[in-house]
Amino acid sequence: MEKGFVxxxxxxxxxxxxxxxxxxxxxxGKPVDGYEVNRIVGTNALAAAxxxxxxxxxxLGYGLLLWDGYRPQRAVNRFVQWSEEPEDGRTKSKHYxxxxxxxxxxxxxxxxxxxxxxxxxxxxxxxxADTGALVPxxxxxxxxxxxxxxxxxxxxxxxxxxxRLLRSIMESSGFNSYDCEWWHYSLKKxxxxxxxxxxxxxxxxxxxxxKNCLIVK
Length: 217
Fold this sequence. Notes:
Elements: E1 5-7, H1 8-11, E2 16-17, E3 41-43, H2 44-59, E4 62-68, H3 73-83, H4 92-95, E5 121-128, H5 157-171, E6 175-178, E7 181-187, H6 203-212
Parallel strand pairs: 2-4
Antiparallel strand pairs: 1-3, 4-5, 5-7, 6-7
Organism: Paenibacillus sedimenti
Function: Catalyzes hydrolysis of the D-alanyl-D-alanine dipeptide.
Protein name: D-alanyl-D-alanine dipeptidase
């Protein structure tokens, strides 16, 4: 674990997360290289901005559910490799029903260098604080389709409103949105804007953090 990074669940009280790339529930169909534990990591700066967003959401009756934060470069490399492999159809209907996997980079859904690897990007959604139910957004995480774009047609008015609410919360907390993915946000002022890290998200990282007591100031 690089200095300046934290496990987000340890510094954001009550945060919910589901690290999709550490599980079988992602577009590759299996856990991805570099994701060795179901935890989400980010820079101290990312955590501080997320705390602001979390408080704003709470004031409106919502919570944040995180899907991905820091992403090792080896995972990005695996995504690129996977996009070049023959189609097996296992995840196509859920994650990329209207494109070929070979088009993912061209269309902006997969990058050879990801903002996530700089440690200050986050994939997330809202849930209702009273029921715990996810807020309808008109498409799931990592649905690689035009319906996932901001301003997409084909979703309900309520879903459009919910996307705008998430965007308003995040942008007012110091984040930029990404046109192709309603769930993806990156810090406007990143601490490592030109560095792409590759340390794994692992139990060794957890021991390092506990030993060094890295917290958000």
